[in-house]
Design brief:
The structure holds two protein chains of two kinds. By secondary structure, chain A is mostly beta strands. Chain A is built from no helices and eleven strands. In chain A, the strands form two sheets. In chain A, strands 2, 4, 5, 9, 10 and 11 form a six-stranded mixed beta sheet that branches. Chain A has a five-stranded antiparallel beta sheet with strand order 1-3-8-7-6, with no helix packed on it. The chains are: A mainly beta, B mainly beta. Chains A and B meet through strand 5, strand 9 and strand 10 of A and strand 5, strand 9 and strand 10 of B.
């Protein structure tokens, strides 16, 4: 089983649509969870952290279910600028004060005019 | 805040040459920096963890003699790809951790093409 698994997509949605991405992870010792955004041929950029209580940042809502080892990201009112690959990322302590990130392959989103 | 730079952004070299990539944290000190590699349509794969003043820790399958990492200061880590071959062509990305150790900020990446 892959450590962090995501539907690769692509998700092609019209502007204004609501789209949801899901992610599962296998390491039950994972401690922190994130969604990153990666544009084509660019570095990943932190979109938001994910908490069990759920958190919202504008049009973006992230949710974590530790029991199911499942993470979600909801994007409302999609904009053309939201087109990118969304990476599900989990962090686990690797010793000596350091944490390692494990990345999913990403889910590609294309928002269409 | 939390800006990480990488240089060069793109490099094309001949097979057998060595290429050095620099990673700098511009506005914070980074005790730990990470080096990743990303092949087309693949996820980022951690190559090594670099701690200032000590030897890097390499992931399984990554040759430490081929990918030399130096972390001489709290703001600079370098990755040298020695005797590069076409299969080393990839997108190399570094990251650094600011005050929160489980959060990483990424450099813009270096696209290496070995002919």
């Amino acid at each position: 089983r892959k450590e962090v698994e995501q539907d690769p997509g692509p998700f092609n949605v019209p502007e204004g649509a609501t789209v949801a991405f899901n992610c599962t992870y296998s390491n039950s010792a994972s401690q922190s969870f994130f969604w990153y955004r990666q544009d084509c041929r660019k570095e990943p950029k932190l979109l938001m952290s994910v908490y069990s209580s759920g958190n919202e940042d504008g049009r973006f809502t992230a949710q974590l279910n530790r029991a199911s080892q499942y993470i979600s990201l909801l994007i409302r009112d999609s904009k053309l600028s939201d087109s990118a690959t969304y990476l599900c990322v989990v962090s686990a302590y690797s010793g000596a004060g350091s944490y390692q990130l494990t990345f999913g392959k990403g889910t590609k989103l294309s928002v269409i005019p | 805040g939390a800006v990480v730079s990488q240089h060069p952004s793109r490099v094309i070299c001949k097979s057998g040459t060595s290429v050095k990539i620099e990673c700098r944290s511009l506005d914070f000190q980074a005790t730990t920096m990470f080096w990743y590699r990303q092949f087309p349509k693949q996820s980022l794969m951690l190559m090594a963890t670099s701690n200032e003043g000590s030897k890097a820790t390499y992931e399984q399958g990554v040759e430490k003699d081929k990918f030399l990492i130096n972390h001489a200061s709290l703001t600079l880590s370098t990755l040298t790809v020695t005797s590069a071959h076409p299969e080393d062509s990839s997108f190399y990305i570094c990251s650094a951790t600011p005050s929160r150790p489980d959060t990483q900020y990424f450099g813009p990446g270096t696209r290496l093409t070995v002919l």
